[in-house]
Amino acid sequence: xxxxxxxxxxxxxxxxKYPTFLELFFDLVxxxxxxxxxxxxxxxxxxxxxxxxxxxxxxxxxxxxxxxWLTDLFNPQLPIIxxxxxxxxxxxxxxxxxxxxxxxxxxxxxxxxxFGIHIVRDAVLIPGTRVNRxxxxxxxxxxxxxxxxxPLWVAGVLVDGSARLVLWAVxxxxxxxxxxxxxxxxxxxxxxLASQIFTGTHLAERHREICIIALGExxxxxxxxxxxxxxxxxxxxxxxxxxxxAVLLFQMYFHRVRQLLAPHNVALVERVRSGTSTSxxxxxxxxxxxxxxxxxxxxxxxxxxxxxxxxxxxxxxGPALFLLGGCLFDFVVTGGILWSRAIxxxxxxxxxxxxPLLSPLAITIVANLVLLLTxxxxxxxxxxxxxxxxxxxxxxxxx
Length: 399
Hints:
Low-confidence stretches: 389-399
Structural class: mainly alpha
Strand content: under 5%
Oligomer: single chain
Mean pLDDT: 84
Shape: globular
Strand order of the largest sheet: 1-2
Number of helices: 13
Number of domains: 2
Order of helices and strands: HHHHHHHEHHEHHHH
């Protein structure tokens, strides 16, 4: 511990540990973001578009993670922190608006939104923590790495096509990867991965909330497609099947999380290494939900007939990604492998070659059956043996 005075903007030890209404309000913009990404995937379900939307998702996820860490480390009741969160929210909205054309003529607007978010955040945190150099160093390290990746984002705007995709992919990989190694910075070192600097309860709740937001986007997509279906029988059935998939995801996520992140399993103070991993595993789960949403748009639009290969990949790949994220999350928290979900991923991959024989709606039903069977197996297993004690944690690293 340093003897320097603590900055006034830090969250105090006796502050409420649960997210504020402002944080819940901030999350709402992500319904729009996920919807835009899913819509872009459905409009052009090709590997190129998939790679582009993956980069966009990683960028907006990085913004969400930094904001969750911001309101965990710093007092969210202060007007300056509240104003910062709202400005970040607006910048995220700008990024979302340009999402379908971020790799086209509106790429510069996407980057301006991304730059604005980082500049506003660091312009508040670096001066606000100047009375304590050890704490200020955290924000400086993040800003340093923003300076490293910033030129790559700008360079991407100046080129088109594959060149932009490669430059932005490298930039966002460095953004997320630098956090995983503690943002090593000349003369300032790095944030130690064993540091305990976060509130486990707060960040556990933030991760739950972003998953609810992703599922909310899934329901929104189903509702929009149903309203545009003219209530044709096939499309109504497809909407019902899509809704069933949302219910299954909800049950699979929250039943497991309720066990793993019960109050007695959540550390009061979070470590950097395990917390980073937890944030990234939730990214994989959210990505799976977004891909499922895109698949639902396609299936509800044309439930019968031949299913192109790229449709099959999305219909089966979405659940597989969600299950993979669940497996990784379980491993981070317990140190073990959730074999029911690992086997389900293998099953989804194994049945893929036979799926061209079925209609898009039938493939979705098959995917739902795999999810349902997995849920039933896990429910039965919970009754037989208790969940192992958590060895990891539920939060994320900070700046």
